[in-house]
Amino acid sequence: MTEPLAADFPPVPDDEWRAAALKAAKAPEDTPTRSITEDGIEVDWLYTREDALAPDPGGVPGRAPFVRGTNAGTGEDEAAWQIRQQQAHPDRREANKALMEDLEGGATAVELRPDRAARGGHAPGSDAFAATRGVDGTMVSTVDDLETVLEGVFVELAPIAIDGGAQAVATGAQLLALLRRRGVADADAIGSLRIDPLGTLAAEGALAQDPADAIATAGRIAAQVADAFPGVRALAVDTRAYVNAGATPVRELAIAITTGVAYLRAAEEAGLEPARAATQIEFTLTVGTNQFGEIAKLRAFRRLWARVLELSGVPEEGRRSFLGARTSDRMLAGIDPWSNMLRATTAGFAAAVGGAEGLTVTPFDTVVADAVGAAAPGGLGRRIARNTQLVLQEESGLRRVADPAGGSWYVESLTDAMAREAWGRITAIESAGGALGGLTDGTVATDLAEQADRRRGELARRDREMTGVNVFPLLADDGVHPEPADRQAFVRTENDRLAERASVALPDAAEPDALLTTLIDAAEVGARIDELAVLAGWGPVDDLDATGLPTRRDAEPFELLRAAAAGAPADAAADADAVTDGDEGAPGDDDLATVQGVKGGAVSDDGPRVFLAALGPLAAHAAQATWAQNLFGVGGLATIQSDPIEDPSTAGELLRADGAVLAAVAGGRKAEDDALRTAITSLRDGGAKTVYLVGGDDAKAKELGADRGVQQGVDLLEILGDALATLDRPVTTRTETAR
């Protein structure tokens, strides 16, 4: 008989565990061992058998409510999650080369993102086409273009998802036309059309149809796809734009479920019963670095969606839809982008443990590539992204275990709490008119902005830490310098190429009940996406100035600090998105580090700096000095530390010799007030415009004659922004929109 692993160890009382937890947190003995999540859920620091849920709402793996995943068994016989990598290189041949590298390197599915011209349905030769061709996606106009991108791909083995935005019906028709061209029988076709009008409206701010009409169209297409292509999913619910704008996990769950309900109703109104409609929807949730929270979120989603389908009359075995995950854009940084690998790995692990059936890991250099106008993330970024998943699948063995988090009292409790909290929000959204109403009346935007502001405050105070951004900043050059693409050359080439295309005879209009068939037939004979949009009856997106929910990346305020410190012109940093769109062409090499306002530059001793007067012996001030260097480095300020100063009155002479106008004093916890006061006065006399007291609050700083106290919990954005303003390097603002 095998003995338990802990048989030879004496039991540890709960109070000893709690004492150890408080010691690890450096908290007083009377500190409550309980925290509150951003959604207001109480979380204990320690869980015991007494916290086990009874009765267990999770069921068993492979059965409703699918909390424990959709796979019933374990081992090599279970299918691994899809490694779905996105491809958005503007050049079709380069996109094909990159996605073939992905597939040969371990990816098992492809997500193709057409460019903004295609997603908007803009016709070649139009101003809108010129402004959007080759931007944020691959230049696809016809099924022949799609053939070029997917040359060599076995589409009957590797599912293709196409993210066509406002023209997802048209791009989906082209994908289905391609499958037929390749000889794939309709009944054997696999893939995803990713029609998501609400997600598109949130991300891009405009649709080609009235939103309610777009939802109804999505339902009709889902019914037609289900009849003709049973292995293809027509609809998608993607929470990316909402999370980028500030959605918390519970809010994300509520948005995902209510959006799914809207599509479920639309499909049912089109004649598709809920059980079949559920198979037509794929969900993509965003995963970040809160490992246990993200695991619980995915598990809670399946429970919530199973409940919705139960109320819709779906039998137990059908109470599920495909659930994918994508690593968060919000957690990506342009400064020290290598640290993005750490965050992507944590997020990917959470997705795998949480039971995602597909996962897209964003390359670590995505923000920098977007900022400088590069065609796409680099080959190394894509390789690391897919290898992260391969390691999780094969070396870590996560694919071989059903519900790895099952039985964790913490995860089980958090899953239950998230599901209950989200259900309350779901019922409130439905009572107020559903997902569409909250999005169009501004309720969602206002709520998410409040959450993003709160999160920004946590980052500013380091209540939420981000390696390489607000803690442990990389002061040297990070070595990531992608080349900008010449997008105007793409536009010229595309206008000429598409103008040479022979005319295509198309019907005047498509009947709603035969919309999919009509569009596929037109795509097969060469109709462009803009022509398909007109044939469908809605045409292009008219509002070219529309913007979706803003992207509130965690690192952005700190990137702006670094850009200001590097001397980025205020208007250049603010116009980052305009440059990325390429209206004036790609930036020059000399501007890459500063124009976009995401990287700044290497921190050097001869640039913006703070002189640090280190009082007393090294042992006395070393900890404070190191902490101060980290703090000022977050803002791109070098810290020039003096040798140990025995006589505080000489600090000003050292400052004058250096020439800095910002100064800080670090004397350690036991430094005497008189010594600190003397040093501060001397620094004033030496030309300091601002003097900081390291390790003290503002009240103590004022008492001793300094301007500001800097210690754990200060607002970094305020402190460092004021410091840069003193150096005539004001921090600008920049607004990003969801991709």
Automatic annotation (TrEMBL):
Amino acid composition bias (Acidic residues), ranges on this chain: 578-592
GO biological process terms, semicolon-separated: propionate metabolic process, methylmalonyl pathway
Coiled-coil intervals, chain numbering: none
Pfam families in UniProt: MM_CoA_mutase
Top-rank EC class of the record's enzyme: isomerase
GO cellular component: cytoplasm
Enzyme Commission number(s) from the entry: 5.4.99.2
UniProt keyword annotation of Isomerase present: yes
GO molecular function list: cobalamin binding; metal ion binding; methylmalonyl-CoA mutase activity
Stretches assigned to the Methylmalonyl-CoA mutase alpha/beta chain catalytic domain: 37-524
Cofactors, names only: adenosylcob(III)alamin
Stretches for region Disordered: 571-599
Alphabetical keyword list: Cobalamin, Cobalt, Isomerase
Family: Belongs to the methylmalonyl-CoA mutase family.
Protein name: methylmalonyl-CoA mutase
